[in-house]
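Suppose you are handed only two things: the residues of a chain and a line of SMILES describing zinc ion. What would the bound structure be? This form records exactly that question and the answer produced for it, so the two can be stored side by side and reused later without any lookup.

QUESTION INPUTS
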Amino acid sequence: MNIVDETIPAPCAACGEKSPLESGFCERCQSALPLIKADVRCPACGAENDGIFDICSKCLKEEERVWSNAVALMRMEGLGKNLIHRFKYGNDTFLAKPLGRLAAAALKTLDFDVELIVPIPLHWSRTLLRGYNQTVLFCEVMAKETGIPLRSILKRTRATPKQASLDREGRKKNLLGAFAARRSHEGWMNRKILLVDDVLTTGSTLAEAAETLKHAGIAEINILTLLRA
Ligand SMILES: [Zn+2]
Ligand SMILES: [Zn+2]
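ANSWER OUTPUT
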């Protein structure tokens, strides 16, 4: 699948308008994106900080975090939510390009200092069903734009039931042991990585994945997601 064809000028990725901005979105769609501003971001989860403390009220209630820094690009609402839904379930794989660019631009403004991009894997059975892993697709664009390498050093060991219907404890249990580090992670021990997923809801998927990589010897894990619920 060639998602980064440079020859044909693509229309606005969100609405199809003929002359989009460099971002891949037209002016109207670009301004409708529910972007999270960098100066109000909670460094623990990437959401907009709703309080007066360093981290947001949700994160204050959390136990110890596995990752160092987190960034989320958009709030889970409006056009942001709509785009991710299309990207994930609607076969609109061309969205990988503008979303990957958005993520790359955000990453460049941060001082995350990461050496590797690692997408959260889907179980092979789910990838087969969907035909693609949306996170890998936009990570490929992000890697190209930033020059940071991308490696799938993490794998799913089993297919886990859908998280959506579960509460926090249920989610944790559901994911226990769901990931394993691939042999290829050995080249990245004691390095700093960026773990990437499309959506951060309770953070249990990212926490379990990060925990697995920490145990495998990765020194520092940072988080990037497209949406923060
Ligand atoms: Zn548009
Ligand atoms: Zn937070």
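WHAT STANDS OUT: Residues 50 and 219 are 30 Å apart (CA to CA). The beta strands are 70-75, 116-119, 154-156, 179-181, 192-200, 220-228.
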